[in-house]
Amino acid sequence: MTKRKSRVVGPSDGVQCIVTDTGRVVTTDLMKQYEMPQSKQLGEAMFKYGETIDPPHDLVKLMNWMNISVVHSSCIHTKVQDTVGIGFYLEPEDDSKIKDKEKDQNYKSLMEFFNQVNDKEDIITLLKKVAIDYEGCGNAYIEVSRGKDGNINGLYHINATTIKWGKTKDKLIQKVGNKYVWFKLFGNEKILNRFTGQFKDAIDNVDEIANEIIPLTQYSWRSACYGLPEWLPALYSMFGDLKEQEYNIDFFVNYGVPAYALLITGSTLTDEVQEEVTKYFETQLKGSSHKTLTLSTPTGVEMKFERLSVEAKEASFRMYRKDNRDTILTAHHVPPYRASIVEQGQLGGNVATETDRIYLDSVVNPRQRAISWIINRLIIQKGLEITGWEFKFDDINVQDAEKDSQIHQRYFQIGVLSPNEIRKELGLEPYEGGDTYYVQGTMTPIGGEGAEEAQTQAPAKEGLTEGQKSGEEEVDV
Predict the structure, then answer these.
(1) In this predicted model, which residue has the larger pLDDT, 124 or 410?
(2) pLDDT score of 450
């Protein structure tokens, strides 16, 4: 028998697909199945709903990977929680104009609105749904409703997979089953009929007036309207994990029956024997751990089954899964420990701190700035017509609390931070007299309140008697 040399084959060899040992066909161009079909006929959607623009990929299939890949799902929920799930606060644009925020009417109105943006949700609950769509398929939408006074009275999440852009790019349509409704872009002062998708000068029936939509998209060069998620390059790795899991499931369904080699000496493999062996492994053995195969062989013919190695394959599977996991983490830019993955010998010290800083600067902070801009400029200023306050997200604390306290103490002792500035970073309320800066030692004020009094008291120490200088006390008799 001539030993065949193994080599890696690929597209250069004319390979268009791979057939696995379980009979599955895996195409090499996996990404194509996520592309939207481009029909050239005039279908029902064009006549009934008006012309729409299809997304470059099937958004439902992209979102469905959250139900398949554990690491992918964990990364998405981690980014969502770190970005919008911690909480929020309102900060005055000018501290000097706000004496008591609890008594400020604009502050009270905004807090009341954000604590209940619709009849079921507060702003954080709403934004977490929006962020899941944004991370899952690269697109997210916020529905905006207005009251009779023209001001915003409600915010709602819309499932991104149900939305399509109109060809005119000034309206969008949501289609669920056989039902559909139109929306106009936020800030468009034209009146849109939500059932016909036509702009009108006036609509008598208030129920027919369309609400507005604020879109959020991850930029993609493939579309001017739709976005694509940043994790898309990891699709092949997630698909590989899926096929590896299916292989292992098949293995255990067959009660852990390993692969065997059939060795025959003294004769050749006849069609009858091949049929019996195939039937035994594919039908009789599957689903049962106790089956017997009986074969009759001619005199002088020896037949033997030799078990192939399973341990080596399992070891390679473990390495393959780890490589795929690392690829998914890289595509999401999420540190392993943030996705609840802990391994012995992970990065520590300054390297871990630098990794956390990169995660904040490249993932969390940019997303918070983008969403904060929408809330502050569009919703608060234009929609609610309120000024003087800014919406901000609470930050995740990826640093060690003890290190933070040491930094605060050092800056306090050299007069860089005042007590109130430290309290502000910790989310605590300031106190009267806490704006003074101090230096290490006697904690003598160097500026602000109390500084003048300290300077007038200091010269009294210069007129010491000889006895006081030597440490002796003078007692008046």
Answers:
(1) 124
(2) 52
d(CA 29, CA 17): 8
- Ranked by mean pLDDT, which of 197-211, 331-345, 457-471 comes out on top? 197-211
Measured CA distances, 83 to 62, 80, 392 (Å): 21, 5, 11
Instruction: At 378, list the tokens.
Output: 């569009």
Instruction: Confirm whether 300 is domain-assigned.
Output: yes
Q: Which residues contact 474 (CB under 8 A, 6 or more apart)?
A: 465, 467, 468
Domain count, the chain: 3
Average pLDDT over residues 99-113: 89
Q: Which domain holds residue 443?
A: 403-461
Indicate whether 114 and 186 sit together in one domain: yes
* Same domain for 433 and 386: no
**Residue range 342-354, pLDDT digits in tens:** 765 555 555 667 7
Model pTM greater than 0.85? Answer: no
Measured CA to CA, the distance from residue 106 to residue 153 in angstroms comes to 15
pLDDT band at 270 (very low <50, low <70, confident <90, very high): confident
Q: Which amino acid is located at 95 in the chain?
A: D
382, 399, 416: which is the final residue of a domain?
399
**Alpha carbon distance 171, 175 (integer Å):** 13
Contact of 87 with 391, CB cutoff 8 Å: no
Distance CA 157, CA 159 (A): 7
Q: Is residue 306 part of a domain?
A: yes
What's the gap between Cα 186 and its chain centre? 25
Nearest to 383 by CA among 396, 391, 392, 374: 374
- Whether residues 76 and 134 share a domain: the answer is yes
Q: Is residue 470 part of a domain?
A: no
Going by C-beta distance under 8 Å and a sequence separation of 6 or more, which residues neighbour residue 181? Answer: 173, 174, 194, 195, 210
Q: How far is C-alpha 230 from the chain's CA centre?
A: 10
Same domain, 215 and 124: yes
Average pLDDT over residues 204-221: 94
The answer, yes or no, to whether residue 40 has pLDDT greater than 50, is no
Buried b (16+ CB within 10 A) or exposed e, 378-391: bbbeebbebebbbb
